[in-house]
Structure formats: structure tokens, C-alpha cells
Amino acid sequence: MRAALAPCTYWWWGLACLTLVRLVLAASIPLSPDEAYYRIWALAPAGGYLDHPPMVAVWARVGMLLAGDTALGVRLLGPVSTCLATMLIVQSAWCWLHGQVAPEQVRAGGLRAGLLFNGTLSVGLGTLVMTPDTPLLFFMALLLWGLVGACIGGQRRMWLLAGLATGLGFDSKYTMLLPLAGLGLWLLATKEGRSWLRTPWPYCAAVLALVCTVPVIWWNAEHAWASFAKQGGRVGDWNPAHALAFMGELLGGQVGLASPLVFIFFVGAVWLLWQRRSSFATLLLCMVALPAAVFAQHALGARVQANWPVVLYPILALAAAQVAWPWWRSAGFVGIGLAGVVGVQAAFMPLRLSPHLDMTLRQMGGWPDFARSVSARVPEGAPLVADEYGLASELAFYAPERVVLGAEPRWRLFSLPHPACGTLAYLVLSHKRAGPPDDHLFEVLETLPEQARTRGGIVADTYALFHVRLRCPAPGQVYGAALLPGRGR
């Protein structure tokens, strides 16, 4: 590995520059609604949340401690952790290929794995926006590094690192269970795997992983298993009449999120894993094939969200280290360029596109100006309220001078202050949500002029504004209202 480092210096400088560019873009792009929502998580620490485990909140909280309650603070660990994950994948590839191919091919294989990992659109965009996939990808890379160290390098204690990475990956997103099931399959079904089961190390790793998951399990047990029920409930979705459309969406989503050229390398990597059948190649194949089979089975009767298989991208990037096609640099740089185009459009809008064509406009466009405009329309000191978690979270971040209330069932699960019944506030309601204000939640006192959220003169969305009184919930009514933490309040 030391011999491989010196000729690769310019690649490390390139990775450092790429990380710096990502940090600049992350600081320049307004928060998306989900990111603003995760910021609320970071300011209301808990062992779990309705939508996901808590690691994305930890990631955002650490970044905010270092860079303040800003967009850069929320996203800071995205580019940093991706940089570290890249280094782990490169070193894992070097260790795997060492002794199998010539030193020059070892160097090229490691760099190929790192570049293709960064060339996926999901990783490129995941460094610019904070999502649960951001920490998940880092812990997947750490898991692979631990497995390479144990199974290839003979360092048995690396199983403990693999166990730690597995537990923290589960704390990031529940899809971590799928490659873990593939690892379990390899341990049970192969001679090399069963030889490990005759040692204490995999069991110690499992205990360590289980300890890491205790906060998530504990939180769910105290909240009627809300998060497990929400995510696990999707397994029951079943509409086989649309199986062909769902399968097409699954395949098309992966071609898009991996970026087309990188996707071809990933397919080639799986083929080579199947052909070579070495012990570690079989391990990687199990960790890819079993989750892929689960996603394909689910797509026969329900929609598979495009980002679910992203958990496999570090494994596929590592496997692609052995795919020695000469155009790997082009594949990686094209993917990085595509992510850069999206990032520049989100930050500076050089292309004037409609909301139907511009995802960055729909998700991120115009939030700071919109929040200021709404705040200027209502009397001084009056609170704002929204019954949509993303909208309420955006107002809490970009209207720091206002008290912002969230009114929705999910807020009952947060350790946040709750407003008194009968509180007077101004309801902001997106026109994308059907119908008037919910009369179970609000008593409408007055209707005010509509407000538009725009960027560069192009309307991203329009919103109705109402003067309302919060109703007291009827017995058995499931909804909650909370005072959301703003900046400087």
C-alpha cells in the first residue's frame, strides 16, 4: 500500500479539491424541505424518529457545532464523510488486489474503485444535500474496509470494526440489514464463511452491532414501534398489475442514480464476481445479490424508491476495481460532471427551466426570499404554522425572527414544546396540497393574499395564507403541534 501511495499523489489532491468544491456548493444551495426537517431532528435529539433512525441527525448536529446553524453546517459532514469513504474504498481495493495482479494494476484498480464511487450521481448529489444515505454510505465503506482487513489481511480484530460499522449503518438507515443478510448467507453457505463461525470474532462483531442498535430499538419500543411500522409497512404494498412499470422504474432509477457509464461498470463487476468465485468475490456477490433479489421481488408488486439500492454502491464500486476497461476515467468524470451541473443549477440557476424540468427549483428554489416575504405579510410577533413538515421546517430555518409551529401527527413523537390550544397564528398552505385548511386542526378567521415562492422570476410553488386559531384536539384525535426551533430563538 505504501508503494501504491506515492504515484497517486495527484489523485489525492484531486479528491481534496473535489471535496472543497462540494463544500462551497453545499454552503451556497438553500436547504431542501427534508434537510430542514433533519435539522429539526438535530436540535431535538432522540434515539429514533418516525421516518428513519437518528444518524442523519447526528451528522447534521456535528456539522452545525463546527459550522453553525447554517446550510453548510447541516451538510458539512456530507463532503467530508464521502472523502473518507473514498479513501476507505481505495485502500480496500488495494488490499484485495494485492498479490493477484501487477503493482500497476493494483494502483489502477484502487483508483478506479474510488473514482467510480464518486462518479455515481447519488454520491455526488449526496455530498450536496444531507440525507440518511449520506452516513449510510460512509458506514458501508467502513464495513467493507473491516471485512477486507479480516478476510484478506488476516487481521481478525477487524471483525469488531465491521460490527461497529454494521450497527452504526443500521442507525443510519434500515436498508443496512440487506447487505448484512448477504454477509450472513456467506458465513453459513461457504466453507470459508463457516471457518469463521468456528472463531469468536463474528459473534463479537454481532454483539457490538446489536449494542449500537439499542437506542433505535428502545425508542421504537417507547413509541409503539412507529418507525419500524412505517418503514416495514411498505413490505405489505402489493399491486402486481403494475409490475412491469415498477421494474422499469427500478432499472431506470439505478441507471440514473449510478450514472449510465458507471452503471455499465457495476454490471461488469457483478459478472466478474460471478465468474471468479474466489472467497472474497463470493462474499461481495452475496452482499449484492441477496439485496438485489429483495428489491426485484418487491418491484413485482410495489414501487422501489430509486435511492433504496444506493446501499449497494460502495460494494459495487469496490467490485469494479477488477473491471479493467480503459474508459473508466471517462465514466467517473462524466458522473462527477453530471452531479456538478445539478449542483451549479441549484446554487446559481444558469438555466431557466420550468419547475417540471428543474428538480432543484421545486425542492430548493426561493426559500429564503419566500420566508422573508411571508414574515413581512403578518403582524409582528405573530407565529407562523404549517401542516406540512417540510414547509414548517423551512419556515423555522429561514424566518428566524418568527415562532413557527408544526401541526401534524409526526410532531407528537418529538421532545419539543407544544403550543396552547386556541393559539392564534398564520397558516401557510401549499397549493399542491388538496383542499382547504383542515377544520379539525384550524379555525379560519381570515384569508390573506396568496404568496409565491420564486427563483429568478420563475414560480416554484404558490401558497395560501390564513389567519387561524389552533383547535384543541378531540378525544382520540391523532395530531400534534410543536414549536419548532429556529435560528437565534
From TrEMBL:
Q: Example GO biological process term?
A: lipopolysaccharide biosynthetic process
Q: Name one GO cellular component term.
A: plasma membrane
Kindly list the GO molecular function terms attached to this UniProt entry.
pentosyltransferase activity
**InterPro entries named among the record's database cross-references:** LipidA_mod_glycosyltrf_83, RgtA/B/C-like
Q: Show the stretches that span the lipid bilayer.
A: 76-97, 109-130, 136-153, 160-188, 200-221, 255-274, 280-298, 310-328, 334-353
Predominant localisation class = membrane
- Cell location: Cell membrane
Domain Glycosyltransferase RgtA/B/C/D-like: start-end pairs: 51-219
Q: How does it sit in the membrane?
A: Multi-pass membrane protein
Listed A to Z, the keywords are: Cell membrane, Glycosyltransferase, Membrane, Transferase, Transmembrane, Transmembrane helix
The protein's superkingdom reads: Bacteria
Q: What PANTHER family does its record include?
A: MANNOSYLTRANSFERASE YKCB-RELATED, MEMBRANE PROTEIN
Q: What is this protein called?
A: Glycosyl transferase
Q: Which organism is it from?
A: Acetobacter okinawensis
